[in-house]
Amino acid sequence: MENKTIFARLRPLLIGGFAFCATTSAGAFTITGSIDSNYQVNFEPFRLNFDATAADNLLLVIDTEGSGLSDTEIGLFDQAGNLIADDDDGGTGFLSRLSFGAGGADGDLASGVYDIAIGAHNTDFADGPSVTSHSTATGGYNLNIELYEIPSATTSWTGSLAAGEVAFFDFTLTDPVVAADGGSLVLDTINSTISDTELGLFDASGNLLADNDDYPGLDLLSQLDFGAAGGGDLAAGDYRVYVGGYDTTFADGPAVSSTSGYTGDFVINMRTSADPIIVQGGVSPVPEPANLALSLIALSGLAVGVRRRGREAAKDTSRAG
Ligand SMILES: [Ca+2]
Ligand SMILES: [Ca+2]
Ligand SMILES: [Ca+2]
Ligand SMILES: [Ca+2]
Questions:
Q1: Whole-prediction pTM
Q2: Which residue from 224, 227, 212, 240 is spatially nearest to 175, judged by alpha carbons?
Q3: Bridge partners of 307?
Q4: pLDDT tens digit string along 111-147?
Q5: How far is the CA of 64 from the centre of ligand 2 (A)?
Q6: Ligand 2 centroid to 73 CA: how many Å?
Q7: What is 11-149's CATH number, 1.10.1040.10, 3.40.50.2000, 2.60.120.380, 3.90.226.10?
Q8: Cα of 259 from ligand 4 centre, angstroms
Q9: Tens digit of pLDDT for each residue in 175-218?
């Protein structure tokens, strides 16, 4: 089968300083095919023209989102037949996902020619390449290969949580984050000691903009994407990001409560191309709900709050209910 040189047209975009190209048509490449008969597996070759490494802040994703085949499996082999990585259900539902480089779950991936083997569940992958399908399922598939450039951490906030606690940080964007301008903002909890985090972002009016429990490729850690990273644009203004352990519940207010038993240190990384960005510093307890909107406007410092369970939590419950 002829090699598909898929990144020949992506590399110039990166040289040109694209902050984030995966959600644009130029940054994603889809190989389509189908499994037409019992026990069929297909090999789809592709060439990676550069190293996809965490050190270079590049994230390479290979997934099967959008496939007609409902339960895919994929395996990645080098030209010596070594199995680099394989996945069954890392994507949406029973679809598959491999991820390399920054934030990836499967390590870095060096430049070179690779084969992606795809079959329906259950398929076995081993060095050889050896790929054996035990499935009689048939259907079409999409092999999506997407490249993301993840901005380096602009700011990282750390702290620790006891059981049932949540923390928040306030920041101000002096410039909007606009996908059409190539701007991106990513908040994640990479390097947290707490193994299962949740994140929620609120605007200055207390509206919940987005929340995430488990982000693809980060296991049980969390990530929120905005602008060209996906998830919508952000206007200039004040924002508050909350972190908690699983299970934390987020609603407009902000109304944030946690039933988490996870304890330990968290890290929130802000990765953004927005320039300039001003992070206001300071430490304060969680304000009473009636004062919150005002305090968001009047912040004079980076606010770090930890809400303890007890009467505050009881109030939260009554508001939510
Ligand atoms: Ca699967
Ligand atoms: Ca399998
Ligand atoms: Ca989580
Ligand atoms: Ca939750």
A1: 0.55
A2: 227
A3: 166
A4: 888 999 999 999 999 999 999 999 999 999 999 988 8
A5: 15
A6: 7
A7: 2.60.120.380
A8: 9
A9: 888 877 767 889 999 999 999 999 999 999 999 999 999 998 78
